[in-house]
C-alpha cells in the first residue's frame, strides 16, 4: 500500500469532493450528514412548538369551566398538536435519523439519491412552517387531526384551515415517499461489500420494513386528500351523504394510513433500541432472526387494524371482529421485540448508562400502552373507551414510551457522532426522572378520566362530573414532563468543554456507524469489507484499514462523489454509483412545488399555474443535468484490483428501482381510488343513482389506445437497444400521440354522456378515475419528449438507455391503471 | 313504586367527595354500571386490567432483573424469547379474543327490543339532540336533549345526524355509537337501575363539542309509561302569558311547542321544556335565570350555537318567556 | 419435474406467509362486508359466508404450513442453531430459513385468530 504523502493527497482529494459549500451556499449542501441534522433539528423544533400547544391545553383543562383560551383557539391547538406531532415530528424524525445514520451504518458514503433527500427536507420544512404558522393568523385547522368530514369539508365550519392542513400535509407526504424510496434503495443496494442480509444491522432491517410500510400506507391518505380537496374546491360530493357520498370513506382511507403510521413511528424507535441494547449489554443481540420476524410481522399485520379506529361507526359486528382479531395478533410480534431486549440484557452484562435509562424507562411506559392497546382492540371495550380520555392516555403511552423515550435514548447515544462530544450523564439522569415521573403523573389519571366518561377534544368540562382533580393532576404532570424535556434541550444547546478530543466509538459499540468521523464529510474514509454483524468487535483491524485507506474507493481522482452498489442478498459489489453533489436545484424545486400548494390553498389559479410550470422546469433541469450522466469510462478500479462498471441501466440500476418503488406507491393510491368506486357500490342499492355512465365504447377505445401507446414505448426500447435511432424516435412520437388520443377518448366518455361531477358521487368518482389516468398519461408524454430530447442531444444510446428504460417501466404501470380503470368504469355498471 | 319525573336523590354530582379509584364516580362513569352492556364491559375491563397489571409487573421485574443479573447463557435467553415473548402472549391474546367475541353478539341483541317495542330516535345536530319516542301503540313524542327509558326493558335507539358526525354515549348504560350523516345506526340499551345518567357527545363535532351532552333518566316502567302519556299531550301551562310573546318574537320559526302554532323544526322542541333537568343540551341547570341568560346571548354560553341572540328584546319580555318555558312541564 | 421446488435464493420467500395472511384477511373482510351490505340482493345465507371463510382459512393454513416446511428444510431441519452470523452464503440461507419459519409460525396463529370471528358471530348485525 502507498506511503503517507500519497495517502494525504488521497484524503485531500476526497475531502475536496465531499466538502460542504461555505457561506449562505451551505444550505445548498445535499450531504446526508447535513440534511439529516437539519431534518432532525426542524422536526425537534416542530415538536417543541406542538409541546407548547399541549401545555396551553393542559393549562386550560387544569380547572373546570376555565376560560383561559377560547373554544375556537383550543380546537385549533389540539388539531395542530396532533397534526404536528404525527406528521412533522414522529415520522420526519425517523427519516432524519435514517438519513443521518444509514450511510455510515451500512458502510456507504451516501444514500443513493442525496439530492432527493435534500428536496424532501426542504419540502418538509416549507410545508411544516406553512401548517404551523397558520395558528398565528387564527387560520389553523380546527377539525381534529383526522379531519373527519363533513365537519372538515364544510367551508363554513372549517374555514381555510382545512385547506392548509390538506395541502400542507400532502406536500409533506410526498416528501415522506421520497424518503422511503431513498431508504429502500439505500438499504437494498448500497451496503458495504460482504454485508449479507444476515449481517445487516437491525436498524437497517427495521427501516427497510418501515420504508416499505410508508409506500403502502401514505398513498391511501394522498388519495383521500385528493377526494377531500376536490370536494372542498369544486364541490364534488365524495363525502356528502345528500349526494350519494359517504363520510365513512374518508375514515377508511385515513385509517388505512393512520394505523400503519403508528408502527411507522414505533418501529424505528425500537430499531434504535436494537442498536443501543447490545452496546450496553456488551454482547451481540440474542434473537436476531426474532427481530426480523417481529419487524416483518408487525409490518404486515399493521395493515389489518385500521377499522379498530371505527368500532363505533356502526359497521357489521363481523367486520369489527376481524379487525379485533388482527389487532390482538399484532401484540405477539410486539411482545417478541420486548423479550429480545430482555433476553439480550440477561445474556450480557449491562452497563446502565443514560441511553439505557431512557430506553428501559420507555419500555416500561410502552408496555402499559401496549396492554391498554390490547384492551381497546377488543370491540366491546372500545365501545366505551373510544374517543374518551382513556384512548388519549393509551396513545400517549404508546407514542411517548414507544417513540419519544427511545429517541431521547438515541440522542444521548448518538450525540458523539454529531460533534464528538458527550451529553451530560448527570443532566441526562435528571431529565429522565423528571420526564418519567412527569409523564406518568400527567397521563395515568387520564385512563380514569376517560372511564369516567370524559370525551377527548373538549375545551372545558363542568365541575360536577368528578374529573376536576384528575385533570389538575394531569396538568401538573405535564409541566413536570416539560421541565424534563427542557433539561434535555439545555444539555444539547449548552456550550461543551472540548475535553474528550473527539475519540471514535466512545461507548465501545460494535456496529459500523461508529467509524464515522464527525469532523469529516466523506462518511467513511474507505469502504471496508464486512464479515460480521458487529464488525468493530469482531474485525480488529477494520478501524485501521478504513482510516488508512485500505478499503474500496479510497480516492476520488475524477472529482466525483462515489459509492458502491452491491447485490441485494450477499452484498457483492456490482457497480460504482456516482451521486449528485451540492446543488441549489433541490431548493428551487421544493420552493416552486411549495408555491403550487400554497397558491392552491388560496385558490390563486394563475399563481398555481406559473408555479407548476416553474416546478416542472426545475425538475427537468435537475434530471437533465444530474441524472444518467454519461461517465468518461465504462469501468473503474475501485481498489483491490476490482474493476466495476460506472453505469447500469434497467433493473440493475438504482434509478430503475427508485422508479419501480415510486410506482408501487402510485399504484397503491390508484387502488385506493378503485376501492372508493366499489365502496360506493356497496353502500347504495343502485350506486349510479340512475345517472348516465360513461358508456362502454369510449372507455374501451381509450383502453385500446393506451395499449397502443404502451406497445409503441416497448418497441422504441427494443429499437434503441439495436441503435436504430430514427425508428426509435418515430416510435416515441407515435406513442406520445397515441397517449394524447387515448386521453381524449378517455375524457370523451363522461363528457359525451353529460356526467356532472358536482351532481352526485357516481359521476364524480368516474371523472376522478379518468382524470387520474389522463394525468398519468400527461406525465408519460413528458417522459417521451424528454427521451426524444435526450436522443437528439446524443445522451441516449443503446448502452446509456436508463431514461428510456425507466420510461418504459413507468408505462407498464400506466397501462395497468388505464386498463383497470376503463374496464371498471366501462363494464362494471353494465354488469351491476 | 311511584317515582315522579324528578331524578331520584343520591345521584348528585360526585365531585371531590369521591376519591376512591373505582366505582363511585359521578353519573357518567363506565365503571359505575347501570345498564346491562356497561356491566358486561366493566367486567371485561376488570379482567383485562388485572391481567394487564400482572403482565406489566412481570415484564418490569424481568427487565430490572436482566439489567442487574450476571450473564445467563444464550440458550436460556433464547428460550425466554420463545416462551415469554411468543408462546405465552399468543395464548393470552387468543383467549382474550375468544372471550370478547363470545361477549359481542350477546351485548347488542338487536331484535330483542321487539319485546318492549319502544324505539327512540335520536338525531344529533350542532350542538343538541332531537329525541323522538315511538311506542308500539303508535304514540309519538318529540323532545330534546334528554332521553327517558324504562328500567329492565330493552330499548332500541336509532341514531342519525343532520349535519356533522356526533356520537351517542351514555357511559353508565353502555358503549357509544356514532351518528353519521346519511346513515342510521342502531343501538340497544337496557337500564338496570333507576337514576339519572349524563352522556356527552363523544365525536368531535365543532366549536362547542364540549358543550353537547344529554341526560338519560331511567325510570321504573310504570312511571315511564305515565310520563310518556303525559308528554304526548300539550303541557297544561301552554296557554299562559308567555305564549303570545313566543309567537310575537318569532320563536316558532325554529321551535315547536305542542298546543300552540309554533311548529319550527330547526331548533329543539320545547313542548315540555320545563320538565327537563337541564338547559342547552346538558350544560346548565334548568332555572329561569339560566333560560333568560341563554335567550339573551346564547353564543356566550355556547360558542357557535345556531340560535341568534335576543338580547335586544325588552328584559321584561325575556323574563316572562323564561318563566313560561320553565312552567311547560 | 420436481414437485417440491428447490430452495429459492431470493428475499421474497420471507414474505410468503405474511402475504398469505394478508390475502386471507382481505378475503374474509371483503366477503363479509359485501355480503352484509348487499344481503338483500344476494340469495345466499350468512352460513354460506361462514363456510366460505372456513374454506379460505384451511387453504391459507395449508399454504403457510407449506411455506413453513420449505423454510424448515432451508434451515436444515433444525440441525443448526442460531445466530447464523457467519459471513457465508450457507449461513445467510440458514438465517433466511429460520426467519421464514418463525414468520410462518406467527402467520399461522394470526390466520387462526382472524378466522375466529366467523365462528362466534353468526349473523350480519350491526
Automatic annotation (TrEMBL), chain A:
InterPro entries: Cyt_c_oxase-like_su1_dom, Cyt_c_oxase-like_su1_sf, Cyt_C_Oxase_1, Cyt_c_Oxase_su1_BS, Cyt_c_oxidase-like_su3, Cyt_c_oxidase_su1_bac, Cyt_c_oxidase_su3-like_sf, Cyt_c_oxidase_su3_a-hlx. Keywords: Cell membrane, Copper, Electron transport, Heme, Iron, Membrane, Metal-binding, Respiratory chain, Translocase, Transmembrane, Transmembrane helix, Transport. It is found in: Cell membrane. It catalyses: 4 Fe(II)-[cytochrome c] + O2 + 8 H(+)(in) = 4 Fe(III)-[cytochrome c] + 2 H2O + 4 H(+)(out). Its main location: membrane. It comes from the Bacteria. SUPFAM superfamilies: Cytochrome c oxidase subunit I-like, Cytochrome c oxidase subunit III-like. Pathway: Energy metabolism; oxidative phosphorylation. Its EC number is 7.1.1.9. It is a multi-pass membrane protein. The keyword Transferase does not apply. Residues 628-830 form the Heme-copper oxidase subunit III family profile domain. The chain crosses the membrane at residues 35-57, 77-104, 116-137, 164-187, 199-223, 262-281, 288-308, 320-344, 356-381, 393-415, 427-449, 469-490, 576-598, 604-624, 654-680, 700-719, 731-752, 764-788, 809-828. Residues 12-543 form the Cytochrome oxidase subunit I profile domain. Belongs to the heme-copper respiratory oxidase family. This is cytochrome-c oxidase. It comes from Mesorhizobium retamae. The gene is ctaD.
TrEMBL record, chain B:
It comes from Mesorhizobium retamae. It is a multi-pass membrane protein. This is Cytochrome aa3 subunit 2. Keywords: Copper, Electron transport, Heme, Iron, Membrane, Metal-binding, Respiratory chain, Transmembrane, Transmembrane helix, Transport. It is found in: Membrane. It comes from the Bacteria. Residues 237-329 form the Cytochrome c domain. Subunits I and II form the functional core of the enzyme complex. Electrons originating in cytochrome c are transferred via heme a and Cu(A) to the binuclear center formed by heme a3 and Cu(B). CDD domains: CuRO_CcO_Caa3_II. Its main location: membrane. The chain crosses the membrane at residues 43-68, 80-102. Belongs to the cytochrome c oxidase subunit 2 family. Pfam families: COX2, Cytochrom_C. InterPro entries: CcO_II, CcO_II-like_C, Copper_CuA, Cupredoxin, CuRO_CcO_Caa3_II, Cyt_c-like_dom, Cyt_c-like_dom_sf, Cyt_c_oxidase_su2. Residues 115-230 form the Cytochrome oxidase subunit II copper A binding domain. SUPFAM superfamilies: Cupredoxins, Cytochrome c. Signal peptide: none annotated. It catalyses: 4 Fe(II)-[cytochrome c] + O2 + 8 H(+)(in) = 4 Fe(III)-[cytochrome c] + 2 H2O + 4 H(+)(out).
Automatic annotation (TrEMBL), chain C:
The chain crosses the membrane at residues 12-35, 47-72, 93-120. It comes from the Bacteria. Keywords: Membrane, Transmembrane, Transmembrane helix. This is MFS transporter. It comes from Mesorhizobium retamae.
Amino acid at each position: 500500500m502507498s506511503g503517507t504523502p500519497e495517502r494525504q493527497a488521497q484524503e485531500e482529494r476526497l475531502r475536496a469532493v465531499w466538502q460542504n459549500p461555505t457561506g449562505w451556499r451551505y444550505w445548498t449542501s445535499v450531504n446526508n450528514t447535513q440534511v439529516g441534522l437539519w431534518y432532525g433539528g426542524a422536526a425537534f423544533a416542530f415538536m417543541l412548538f406542538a409541546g407548547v400547544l399541549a401545555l396551553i391545553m393542559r393549562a386550560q383543562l387544569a380547572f373546570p369551566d376555565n376560560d383561559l383560551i377560547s373554544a375556537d383557539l383550543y380546537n385549533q391547538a389540539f388539531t395542530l398538536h396532533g397534526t404536528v406531532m404525527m406528521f412533522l415530528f414522529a415520522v420526519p424524525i425517523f427519516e432524519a435519523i435514517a438519513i443521518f445514520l444509514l450511510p455510515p451504518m451500512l458502510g456507504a458514503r451516501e444514500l443513493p439519491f442525496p439530492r432527493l433527500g435534500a428536496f424532501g427536507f426542504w419540502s418538509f420544512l416549507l410545508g411544516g412552517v406553512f401548517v404551523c404558522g397558520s395558528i398565528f393568523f387564527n387560520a389553523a385547522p380546527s377539525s381534529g387531526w383526522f379531519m373527519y368530514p363533513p365537519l372538515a369539508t364544510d367551508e363554513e365550519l372549517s374555514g381555510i384551515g382545512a385547506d392548509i392542513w390538506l395541502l400542507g400535509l400532502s406536500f409533506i407526504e410526498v416528501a415522506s415517499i421520497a424518503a422511503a424510496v431513498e431508504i429502500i434503495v439505500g438499504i437494498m443496494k448500497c451496503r458495504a461489500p460482504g454485508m449479507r442480509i444476515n449481517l445487516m444491522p437491525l436498524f437497517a432491517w427495521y427501516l427497510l420494513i418501515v420504508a416499505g410500510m410508508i409506500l403502502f400506507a401514505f398513498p391511501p391518505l394522498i388519495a383521500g386528500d385528493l377526494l377531500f380537496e376536490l370536494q372542498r374546491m369544486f364541490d364534488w360530493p365524495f363525502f356528502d351523504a345528500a349526494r350519494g357520498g359517504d363520510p365513512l370513506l374518508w375514515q377508511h382511507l385515513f385509517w388505512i394510513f393512520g394505523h400503519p403510521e403508528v408502527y411507522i413511528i414505533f418501529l424505528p424507535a425500537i430499531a434504535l433500541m436494537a442498536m443501543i441494547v447490545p452496546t450496553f449489554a456488551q454482547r451481540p443481540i440474542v434473537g436476531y432472526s426474532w427481530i426480523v420476524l417481529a419487524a416483518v410481522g408487525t409490518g404486515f399485520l399493521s395493515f389489518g387494524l385500521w377499522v379498530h379506529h371505527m368500532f363505533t361507526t356502526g359497521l357489521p359486528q363481523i367486520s369489527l371482529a376481524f379487525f379485533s382479531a388482527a389487532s390482538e395478533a399484532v401484540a405477539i410480534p410486539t411482545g417478541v421485540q420486548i423479550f429480545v431486549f430482555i433476553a439480550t440484557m440477561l445474556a450480557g452484562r449491562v452497563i446502565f448508562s443514560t441511553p439505557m435509562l431512557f430506553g428501559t424507562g420507555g419500555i416500561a411506559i410502552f408496555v402499559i400502552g401496549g396492554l391498554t392497546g390490547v384492551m381497546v382492540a377488543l370491540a366491546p371495550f372500545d365501545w366505551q373507551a373510544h374517543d374518551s380520555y382513556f384512548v388519549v392516555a393509551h396513545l400517549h403511552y404508546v407514542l411517548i414510551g414507544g417513540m419519544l423515550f427511545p429517541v431521547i435514548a438515541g440522542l444521548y447515544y448518538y450525540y458523539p457522532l454529531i460533534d464528538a462530544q458527550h451529553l451530560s450523564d448527570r443532566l441526562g439522569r435528571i431529565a429522565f426522572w423528571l420526564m418519567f415521573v412527569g409523564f406518568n403523573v400527567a397521563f395515568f389519571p387520564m385512563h380514569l378520566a376517560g372511564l369516567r366518561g370524559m370525551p377527548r377534544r373538549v375545551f372545558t368540562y363542568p365541575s360536577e362530573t368528578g374529573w376536576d382533580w384528575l385533570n389538575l393532576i394531569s396538568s401538573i404532570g405535564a409541566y413536570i414532563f416539560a421541565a424534563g424535556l427542557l433539561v434535555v434541550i439545555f444539555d444539547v444547546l449548552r456550550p461543551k468543554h472540548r475535553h474528550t478530543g473527539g475519540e471514535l466509538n466512545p461507548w465501545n459499540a460494535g456496529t459500523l456507524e461508529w467509524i464515522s468521523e464527525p469532523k469529516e464529510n466523506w462518511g467513511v474514509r474507505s469502504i471496508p469489507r464486512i464479515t460480521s454483524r458487529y464488525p468493530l468487535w469482531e474485525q480488529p483491524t477494520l478501524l485501521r484499514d478504513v482510516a488508512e485507506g485500505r478499503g474500496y474507493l479510497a480516492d476520488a481522482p475524477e472529482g466525483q462523489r462515489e459509492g458502491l452498489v452491491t447485490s441485494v442478498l450477499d452484498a457483492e459489489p456490482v457497480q460504482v454509483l456516482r451521486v449528485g453533489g451540492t446543488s441549489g436545484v433541490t431548493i428551487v424545486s421544493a420552493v416552486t412545488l411549495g408555491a403550487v400548494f400554497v397558491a392552491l390553498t388560496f385558490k390563486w389559479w394563475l399563481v398555481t399555474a406559473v408555479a407548476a410550470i416553474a416546478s416542472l422546469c426545475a425538475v427537468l433541469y435537475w434530471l437533465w443535468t444530474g441524472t444518467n450522466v454519461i461517465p468518461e469510462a465504462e469501468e473503474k478500479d475501485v481498489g483491490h484490483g476490482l474493476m466495476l462498471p460506472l453505469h447500469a441501466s434497467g433493473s440493475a440500476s438504482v434509478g430503475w428501482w427508485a422508479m419501480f418503488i415510486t410506482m408501487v406507491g402510485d399504484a397503491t393510491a390508484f387502488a385506493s381510488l378503485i376501492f372508493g368506486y366499489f365502496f360506493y357500490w356497496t353502500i347504495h342499492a343502485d350506486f349510479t343513482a340512475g345517472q348516465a355512465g360513461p358508456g362502454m365504447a369510449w372507455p374501451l377505445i381509450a383502453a385500446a389506445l393506451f395499449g397502443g401507446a404502451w406497445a409503441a414505448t416497448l418497441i422504441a426500447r427494443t429499437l434503441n437497444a439495436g441503435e436504430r435511432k430514427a425508428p426509435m424516435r418515430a416510435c416515441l412520437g407515435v406513442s406520445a400521440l397515441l397517449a394524447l388520443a387515448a386521453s381524449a377518448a378517455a375524457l370523451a366518455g363522461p363528457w359525451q354522456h353529460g356526467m356532472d361531477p358536482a351532481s352526485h358521487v357516481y359521476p364524480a368518482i368516474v371523472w376522478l378515475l379518468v382524470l387520474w389516468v389522463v394525468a398519468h398519461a400527461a406525465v408519460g408524454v413528458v417522459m417521451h419528449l424528454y427521451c426524444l430530447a435526450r436522443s437528439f442531444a446524443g445522451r441516449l444510446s443503446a448502452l446509456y438507455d436508463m431514461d428510456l428504460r425507466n420510461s418504459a417501466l413507468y408505462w407498464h404501470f400506466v397501462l395497468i391503471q388505464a386498463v383497470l380503470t376503463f374496464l371498471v368504469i366501462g363494464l362494471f355498471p353494465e354488469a351491476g | 313504586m311511584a317515582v315522579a319525573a324528578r331524578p331520584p336523590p343520591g345521584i348528585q354530582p360526585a365531585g371531590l367527595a369521591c376519591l376512591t379509584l373505582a366505582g363511585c364516580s359521578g353519573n357518567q362513569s363506565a365503571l359505575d354500571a347501570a345498564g346491562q352492556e356497561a356491566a358486561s364491559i366493566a367486567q371485561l375491563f376488570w379482567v383485562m386490567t388485572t391481567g394487564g397489571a400482572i403482565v406489566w409487573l412481570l415484564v418490569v421485574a424481568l427487565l430490572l432483573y436482566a439489567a442487574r443479573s450476571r450473564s445467563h447463557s444464550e440458550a436460556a435467553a433464547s428460550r425466554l424469547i420463545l416462551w415469554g415473548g411468543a408462546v405465552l402472549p399468543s395464548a393470552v391474546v387468543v383467549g382474550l379474543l375468544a372471550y370478547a367475541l363470545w361477549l359481542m353478539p350477546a351485548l347488542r341483541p338487536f331484535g330483542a327490543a321487539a319485546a318492549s317495542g319502544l324505539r327512540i330516535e335520536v338525531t344529533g345536530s350542532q350542538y343538541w339532540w332531537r329525541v323522538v319516542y315511538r311506542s308500539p301503540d303508535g304514540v309519538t313524542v318529540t323532545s330534546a336533549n334528554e332521553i327517558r327509558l324504562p328500567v329492565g326493558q330493552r330499548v332500541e335507539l336509532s341514531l342519525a345526524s343532520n349535519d356533522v358526525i356526533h356520537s351517542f354515549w351514555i357511559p353508565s348504560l353502555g358503549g357509544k355509537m356514532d351518528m353519521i350523516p346519511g346513515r342510521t345506526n342502531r343501538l340497544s340499551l337496557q337500564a338496570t337501575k333507576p337514576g339519572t345518567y349524563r352522556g356527552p357527545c363523544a365525536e368531535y363535532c365543532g366549536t362547542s363539542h364540549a358543550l353537547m351532552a344529554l341526560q338519560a333518566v331511567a325510570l321504573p316502567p310504570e312511571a315511564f309509561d305515565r310520563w310518556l302519556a303525559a308528554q304526548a299531550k300539550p303541557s297544561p301551562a301552554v296557554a299562559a302569558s308567555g305564549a303570545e310573546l313566543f309567537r310575537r318574537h318569532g320563536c316558532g320559526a325554529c321551535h315547536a311547542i305542542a298546543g300552540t302554532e309554533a311548529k319550527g323544526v330547526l331548533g329543539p322542541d320545547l313542548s315540555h321544556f320545563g320538565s327537563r333537568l337541564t338547559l342547552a343540551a346538558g350544560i346548565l341547570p334548568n332555572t329561569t335565570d339560566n333560560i333568560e341568560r341563554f335567550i339573551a346571548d346564547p353564543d356566550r354560553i355556547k360558542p357557535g350555537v345556531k340560535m341568534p341572540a335576543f338580547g335586544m328584546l325588552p328584559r321584561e319580555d325575556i323574563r316572562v318567556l323564561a318563566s313560561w318555558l320553565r312552567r311547560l312541564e | 419435474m420436481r414437485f417440491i421446488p428447490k430452495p429459492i435464493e431470493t428475499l421474497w420467500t420471507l414474505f410468503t406467509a405474511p402475504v398469505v395472511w394478508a390475502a386471507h384477511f382481505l378475503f374474509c373482510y371483503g366477503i363479509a362486508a359485501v355480503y352484509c351490505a348487499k344481503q338483500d340482493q344476494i340469495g345466499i345465507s350468512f352460513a354460506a359466508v361462514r363456510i366460505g371463510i372456513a374454506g379460505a382459512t384451511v387453504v391459507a393454513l395449508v399454504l403457510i404450513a407449506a411455506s413453513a416446511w420449505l423454510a424448515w428444510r432451508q434451515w436444515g431441519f433444525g440441525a443448526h442453531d442460531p445466530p447464523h452470523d457467519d459471513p457465508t452464503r450457507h449461513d445467510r440461507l440458514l438465517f433466511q430459513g429460520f426467519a421464514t419459519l418463525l414468520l410462518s409460525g406467527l402467520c399461522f396463529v394470526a390466520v387462526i385468530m382472524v378466522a375466529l370471528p366467523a365462528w362466534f358471530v353468526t349473523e350480519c348485525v350491526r
